[in-house]
TrEMBL record:
Superkingdom per UniProt: Bacteria
InterPro entries referenced in this protein's UniProt entry, alphabetically: Competence_ComEA_HhH (IPR004509), Endo/Exo/Phosphatase_dom_1 (IPR051675), RuvA_2-like (IPR010994)
One Pfam short name: HHH_3
Signal peptide positions (record): 1-22
Organism: Salinivibrio costicola subsp. alcaliphilus
UniProt name for this protein: Helix-hairpin-helix domain-containing protein
NCBIfam families per UniProt: competence protein ComEA helix-hairpin-helix repeat region
UniProt keyword annotations, A-Z: Signal
Keyword Signal: yes
Length: 102
């Protein structure tokens, strides 16, 4: 009887495993889609900038907003390196996430 019960549980585990893996992959893809949303650095708030851009915390996000208010809109994503504390590597990590409005 124990052997039969163990066999049934083993078969159930094999049958349900692909469903569990598929669900976790879907959740992973869903979170990746959230992460790759485009951020308009000319209009985004400190909170949006810090949440959506890699390597940008609240202090750097505030520096972006302060720079934008002082110097006007960014003409291209490359202009982001003009903000103190943001270098080329941070720009490259986020290039696919950044857009600029006119």
């Amino acid at each position: 009887m124990k052997h039969l019960l163990s066999s049934i549980l083993f078969v159930l585990a094999l049958v349900t495993a692909p469903t569990v893996l598929s669900a976790s992959q879907d959740a992973s893809q869903s979170s990746e889609q959230v992460e790759t949303r485009s951020v308009d650095i000319n209009t985004a708030s400190v909170q949006i900038l810090s949440e959506q851009l890699r390597g940008i915390g609240p202090a750097k996000a505030k520096a972006i907003v302060d720079y934008r208010q002082k110097h006007g809109k960014f003409a291209s994503p490359d202009d982001l390196v003009e903000v103190k504390g943001i270098g080329a590597s941070t720009l490259e990590k986020n290039r696919d996430r950044i857009n600029v409005s006119s």
